[in-house]
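R.M. (postdoc): so does anyone remember the format we settled on? I'll just put the structure tokens first.
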């Protein structure tokens, strides 16, 4: 099971790294929204596991990392959405 989890982390890392140049495109924003939801679910599951489940005090590290990454992707997504229709950003992300 841990190997499947490792492959999942590797795929998320490769997806974000390979799409780093397309962050302002529609595809890049879709990836950011999907990762925001993914890390949001991760926060809930890590919090549940820490408070009621099998995790010990080190589970707070998982909660913190998911929270940090989720807030980062959500902030990036909101920043892009706020500036794109009103400030004249073209489809390529440049003014």
């Amino acid at each position: 099971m841990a190997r499947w989890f490792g492959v999942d982390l590797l795929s998320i890392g490769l997806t974000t790294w390979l799409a780093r140049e397309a962050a302002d495109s529609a595809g890049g924003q879709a990836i950011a929204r999907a990762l925001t939801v993914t890390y949001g679910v991760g926060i809930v599951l890590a919090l549940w596991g820490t408070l009621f489940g099998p995790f010990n005090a080190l589970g707070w590290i998982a909660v913190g990392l998911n929270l940090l990454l989720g807030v980062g992707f959500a902030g990036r997504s909101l920043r892009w959405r706020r500036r794109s229709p009103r400030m004249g950003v073209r489809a390529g992300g440049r003014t």
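R.M.: ...and that's the designed sequence above, right after the tokens. Also worth knowing: The chain has a mean pLDDT of 82. Residues 24-95 form one domain.
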